[in-house]
Structure formats: C-alpha cells, structure tokens
Design goal:
The protein has nine helices and seven strands. It has 248 residues and is an alpha/beta fold. The radius of gyration is 17 Å and the shape is globular.
C-alpha cells in the first residue's frame, strides 16, 4: 500500500504544526497549508524546522477561503505528491466584538475563512476519496461552537456550522469508506493564550475542571487516531477535548 497523503490547512500554526508532526510520525506524506503573507506562513523555515526535528514534510501557500486558489493548489498536490487521502481542516481566524459593535466585514471575514474554507477543501477531495473507497476528514471546531461565547457570534456560528457540515458529508460518504469527524478543542496553550494577561488566564483556567490548558499535542494525538486506517467506524462525531469545560 502506498503512503497516504495528508493535507493540513492552518498546518503551520501552533496546533496545525503538532498535527503535521503526528501524522508524519504515523508514516503519512504531510502537506501543510498556510495563508501567504501571514506570520506563520514562512514555508522554507517551517519545513527546515520540521526536518531538524526528524519529520519530512511539505508546505505550500494557499488561501483556502477562495475556491479557485484551493482547487489549483490541491491539483498541484495530487499531481506532484499523490492523491489526497487525509484532510484536516485546522485553518481559522477570529474577529471578536459584541454583536452591536460587529461590522458586516468582521462577520463575513470569519465565516469566509472558517466555514467557506471547509467547503472549499472538502469539495476538492471528496470525489477522489469516494472513487478510491477511502478517506479521512477531520474538521477542527471549538468549544465555543458548542456553547457560544460573548463577543464571538461570528466565530461560534462558523464553528457550529462546521459540525453541521461534518454530519452531512459523513452521511453522504459513509458507504464509500470515507469518514468525516469534528474535533472541538477547548483552550489550548499557545502564544495567543499566553499573551492574555495572567489574571485573565487564571480566570479561564478556573473554569476548566482539569485545572490547566490543553496541549497542542493532545489535539494532534486525537487527530492522528481519527485519521488512522483502523478508525473506519467513527464518523459524524463531534469529539470534545476541553478538560471538562463543557460537557454535553
């Protein structure tokens, strides 16, 4: 059996990088995608850093919020690396504000980047996966898509929408050997979280029953499990990984 190709959107970010490393360790050919011009999208540096850690990876720039760019990059991957068997949608942005202060531009930017992108990427791989009778798709949502959050109507709506999409495509593709699942992380230790004032971080941790932030590697291990060949009986699920902050 040939090595399976895995594409990770938002793959050069904090969580995305850990996902890429875990998939590479599992023997996948990993392609990280990132938005050109953003601080995380330093392709050569990122690939070199992974190589220094012992992981062989690829990285490409792609605006997954735009269908034509996504289709072009995905075709390039399939032509040069191989058919895409695994897709992890981890790209996302925030534009926080209470609804009375949220502009239409803030709303559309988040829906476009977080939800339209999942359609774009999945649309580009679903036909090939079903034709080959194998595929693993994991969409990264959020605890705030499950419970809502003050000042995040756009973000919570986009993340909740991801799981509705997951369930629908899971039903469409189930008999073709393609699984589609959602992972909903809680607060994960990252540069963004650590930039929050310590007093506010302490309040967040106080709301988490296990008493700490999650680690990116904990998300990555779950994704690696869901994308394994042996995980074919799990589909349409929304798996919470939030330290008990939200249960339901």
């Amino acid at each position: 059996m040939s090595t399976r190709v895995a594409v990770v959107t938002g793959g050069t970010g904090t969580i995305g990088t850990e996902i890429c490393k875990h998939l590479a360790a599992a023997g996948r050919k990993v392609v990280a995608l990132c938005l050109p011009g953003t601080p995380d999208c330093r392709l050569d540096d990122w690939v070199a850093a992974r190589a220094n850690e012992g992981y062989a990876t690829h990285a490409l720039g792609c605006n997954v919020a735009e269908f034509d760019d996504t289709a072009s990059v995905f075709k390039k991957i399939e032509d040069t690396i191989g058919p895409i068997d695994i897709l992890v949608n981890a790209a996302g942005i925030t534009r926080d504000a209470s609804l009375r202060k949220m502009t239409p531009e803030m709303w559309h930017a988040v829906i476009h980047a977080n939800l339209d992108s999942v359609f774009n990427t999945t649309r580009c791989v679903i036909e090939g996966m079903t034709d080959r009778n194998f595929g693993r798709i994991v969409n990264i949502s959020s605890v705030n898509g499950q419970k809502g959050q003050f000042g995040q109507a756009n973000y919570a709506a986009s993340k909740a929408g991801i799981h509705g999409f997951t369930m629908s495509i899971a039903r469409e593709a189930a008999r073709k050997g393609v699984t589609v699942n959602t992972v909903s992380p809680g607060y994960i230790e990252s540069p963004m979280i650590m930039a929050v004032p310590e007093e506010h971080r302490a309040k967040i941790v106080a709301e988490i029953p296990v008493g700490r932030f999650g680690q990116p590697s904990e998300i990555a291990r779950l994704v690696a499990f869901l994308t394994a060949d042996e995980s074919g009986f799990i589909t349409g699920a929304d798996i919470s990984i939030n330290g008990g902050q939200h249960m339901g």
